[in-house]
Amino acid sequence: MQIVRTVAALREAVAALRADGGRVALVPTMGALHAGHLALVAEGGARGPHVVVSIFVNPTQFGPNEDFDAYPRREAADARLLEDAGVAILWAPAVEEMYPQGFATSITVAGITEGLDGAARPGHFDGVATVVNKLFAQVRPDVALFGEKDYQQLAVIRRMAADLDTGVEIVGVPTQRDDDGLALSSRNAYLQPEERQAARALPRALGEAAAAIAAGGDVAQALEVARGRLTDAGFAPIDYVLLCDAATLEPLSRADRPARLLAAARMGRTRLIDNLEVPAA
Ligand code: AMP
């Protein structure tokens, strides 16, 4: 596996891969890799076969009071995992390489970014859309893989990729979970042991609400019960627990179309998000 840190070196390395034939798959990450990221890499290998993984903790998608400085950085361990997974190129630019002096462009995807995490984290999706667009321009992949764990992000990227004629196929990969149901996340490392125990309430509350709604139960009531479960487990504040249209992410009061149940809440200093599919009742 080649580790590259400049756009020029990246272009050369990708050109060499392409000379070999076969498609190039890109997996964008912020590092501190876990089995969720590796599921994206495996899917990329199946669709590639060449896989490029980026590790870049993107400052522009963090708010001023968020965890940019504290975000876990473990590049050496990540590189070993990626090498073992058969990744061809690790693209790990410094902030100055990604955003050189004078950088002045930002991409805003309207509508779908406005609710949920877009409301809770102003500017977050501009940072995501801009950096992913740059990654597409740098790597020029055939296909790029994103986790359903960040469901709104996946929807935003799909919108942007289509709107900007990127020609990149966007593939969503199901959420990988620990044995007790908690979605794998680099931020789980922030959880104290007792917080980690209590955090199981998040997938449980969503699972219970999704089942109640799928069985024809009242949506508002199911969401209220889920919020109560989260509060009882020690989550505070709860940013949202909402049923949304699976494609547009508009909030729904009835599950009369393909829908997604999404939640974000804080456990101690750790903000966790999760989501589940809800089939039409
Ligand atoms: P991150 O490093 O958190 O920016 O995540 C990089 C990519 O991995 C994103 O597309 C995430 O949605 C995806 N991802 C993170 N956690 C999981 C998970 N538990 N299951 C599947 N994909 C995930």
TrEMBL record:
One GO cellular component, as annotated: cytosol
Keyword Oxidoreductase (UniProt): no
Active site: H37 (proton donor)
Subunit annotation: Homodimer.
Additional remark text: The reaction proceeds by a bi uni uni bi ping pong mechanism.
Function: Catalyzes the condensation of pantoate with beta-alanine in an ATP-dependent reaction via a pantoyl-adenylate intermediate.
Protein name per the record: Pantothenate synthetase
Gene that encodes it: panC
